[in-house]
Amino acid sequence: MQNTRVVLASRPKGWVSEDNFRIEQAPLASPGEGEVLVKNLWLSLDPYMRGRMSDAKSYVKGVELGEVMVGQTVGEVLESKNPGFKPGDKVLTQLGWQLFGAAKDVVKLPDLNVPLSYYLGILGMPGMTAYFGLREIGQPKAGETLVVSAASGAVGSVVGQLAKLAGCRVVGVAGGAEKCGYVVRELGFDACVDYKAGRLYEDLKAACPRGVDVDFENVGGEILDTLLRLMNVGSRIVVCGLISEYNAAEPYGYRNMRSVLVNRVRVQGMIVFDWKERYGEGLKALGAELAQGRLKYRESVVEGIENAPKGLVALLKGGNFGKQLVRLG
Amino acid sequence: MQNTRVVLASRPKGWVSEDNFRIEQAPLASPGEGEVLVKNLWLSLDPYMRGRMSDAKSYVKGVELGEVMVGQTVGEVLESKNPGFKPGDKVLTQLGWQLFGAAKDVVKLPDLNVPLSYYLGILGMPGMTAYFGLREIGQPKAGETLVVSAASGAVGSVVGQLAKLAGCRVVGVAGGAEKCGYVVRELGFDACVDYKAGRLYEDLKAACPRGVDVDFENVGGEILDTLLRLMNVGSRIVVCGLISEYNAAEPYGYRNMRSVLVNRVRVQGMIVFDWKERYGEGLKALGAELAQGRLKYRESVVEGIENAPKGLVALLKGGNFGKQLVRLG
Fold first, then answer.
1. Per residue in A209-238, pLDDT tens?
2. Same domain, B188 and B66
3. Given CB 3.0 to 4.6 Å as the disulfide criterion, which of A238, B31, B302, B309 pairs with A137?
4. Boundary-marking domain end, from A236, A257, A273
5. Number of compact structural domains in chain A
6. Is A257's CB within 8 Å of B220's CB?
7. In a domain, A150, yes or no
8. Which one, of B325, B316, B318, B298, lies nearest residue B161 by Cα?
9. DSSP 3-state assignment of A25?
10. What is the distance in angstroms between the Cα of B241 and the nearest Cα belonging to chain A?
């Protein structure tokens, strides 16, 4: 048996392209003492991967040229040299873009009677991001207005539904009529603004007649700058992602900083790892909402490891619809 | 006896000029029931006044054309129709740019054995701004690095000295060698960067070898945007003022927002009125430091009401040195 893996071939300038990756065959790893050999079943594709392809300072070191692309996977243990695991166990790994791998730091998945892929989405990093970012920084109160960008995405869709459960007026921002329709009709948001329609300020203003109390920001750029004009006194902006900037050659120039002063806005950056000791709490809370059918969730699946580069390119351009996954198994 | 007052004659476009004001003679006000007639002794000039000259949305409504310019004063009661006050009492007022006025909402000053003008500065709004903004939002810890812009000013000088007392490395940003020298030699800051020297990033980086944990921002624009590049993980930015933007025809475009995400920075706007119920606490704390000689304080005095416009113009251009006052008495 051979391993197939995707390595970083070159660093993107601006938009990522499939040429930045190379698909390789390699011998199967042999698990060392304390390790397990895992067959990956699902690979998660996420916006943060754009940052790891660059060598600019970010949360953590970027991927080196020739190295396997980083990423979270769900897989099955084939062989174990760790007494905590046995063949057949389902695990969460950081093995990245490859079909097989050996590792020590894998996490055995609980059995919550949900599809395995959910542990990469609504019960994984995106779900935890939504749960803790909203709860700890956004702090929505009943009756307030919350706006979330990338509203149909893995994080945004959970943020908006949790805010609805908290009693907020919830307005999404998404690209195109199809995504906006889904956000309102399927996810139950009060409104959704299509940022591609070219009337961003007017449409947001109309959708938020009492201003904005919480902006859960996944996109940044013009969307964030426009929302700054609509923030209420004492409002909060959760800076969870700035996906519009990741591929831009030049950073966006935000012109409405004065609103932060005038309206005493609290703008705070976040990364989900800051709450890693509390994932159990998030898993329990989101698992309970899912079990009661109070959270809807959508996936966008690319078939096969060789299509992972195409999947990431589409994700970064907003071409996906729901949590982006690659089916490997 | 006649009153002399300064009214808003026209709204500035860009920089304020003396032509935006008109000096008028008017009959003396007569105090109504519950009011006192006050002879103003000192008028405070502050950057926020630029905002009140505009009709753009800000904290509060702007000054109407033909109205007396707003401002805080310290004065002496000449005549009282309020049982709480008697002639000779020293009071803090919002009577604005005029020699006399009648009002109900004046505050009797405690006698802390300090010059009366201090109640407009280190023991007034600027002092409270420094005290509460630093304590409640900046939250400096011993060993951290704090940067404060407009470091020789009424707010900045107090912020930096309080942060030194809290055990921080304190770096000021000020315009010109004279102010920088004062900040280091007289106020005891560890370093001061001259923003006019044209090496802002390099000089700040050298002055903050362990990065920046708190930025107490009074200026904004290029200074804030440059500091964003130097903020540490988990750092705080107190957005207290954006004086560089007040006179700009176009708002500044901030290009380093990504640092807020990557470093999980908390950026928060403030206005001192949010803590008005707690001024007593601030007065006590700052009064105690002053009494022990642990806070230095400098004033810049313009003589006579007719020179108030010139004083404000100079303040907004950074031409003052210390808390800007107009002596009226």
1. 999 999 999 999 999 999 999 999 999 999
2. no
3. A238
4. A273
5. 2
6. yes
7. yes
8. B298
9. strand
10. 7
**B280 lies in a domain?**
no
CB contact (8 A) between residue B264 and residue A270 = yes
Residue A151 shares a structural domain with residue A111:
no
pLDDT tens-digit readout, B251-280: 999 999 999 999 999 999 999 999 989 988
Report whether A223 contacts A149 (CB < 8 A): yes
3-state secondary structure of B92: strand
| Six-digit token string for A220 | 């940044």
Q: Could you tell me what percent of chain B has a pLDDT over 90?
A: 86
Amino acid at A319: G
**A312 and A212 co-located in one domain:** no
Cα gap B238→B172, rounded to integer Å: 14
Helix (H, G, I), strand (E, B) or coil at B227: helix
CA nearest to A253 within chain B:
B253
**CA neighbours closer than 13 Å in the CB half-sphere of residue A224:** 32
Record: contact A264-B253, CB cut-off 8 A? no
CATH code at position B25: 3.90.180.10
Regarding whether A304 and A262 lie in a shared domain, the answer is: no
Alpha helices in chain A (DSSP H): 48-52, 125-132, 156-165, 177-185, 200-207, 222-228, 243-246, 258-262, 279-291, 308-316
pLDDT of res. A59: 57
d(CA B168, CA B300) in angstroms, rounded, equals: 27
The answer to whether A313 touches A17, Cβ cutoff 8 Å, is: yes
**Closest approach of chain A CAs to the CA of B270, in angstroms?**
5
Q: What are phi and psi of B170, to 5 degrees?
A: -120, 125
Confidence band, pLDDT 50/70/90 cuts, at residue B57: low
Give chain B positions within 8 Å (CB) of A259.
269
Query: Which residue segment(s) compose the domain that B305 sits in?
Result: 2-121+298-327
| Assigned domain for B217 exists | yes
Asked if B144 and B44 sit in the same domain, the reply is: no
Do A263 and A164 reside in the same domain of the chain?
A: yes
CB contact under 8 A, B257 and A254: yes
A48 and A149 assigned to the same domain = no
The pLDDT assigned to A58 comes to 59
One domain, residues A190 and A93:
no
- Report the chain A residue with the minimal C-alpha distance to residue B250: A255
Alpha carbon distance A18, A32 (integer Å): 33
Which pLDDT value is given to residue A61? 78
pLDDT, greater one: A247 or A225: A225
Please check whether residue B279 lies inside any domain of the structure: no
Least trusted range by pLDDT, from A148-152, A247-251, B266-270: A247-251
Helix H or strand E segment including A73: strand A73-80
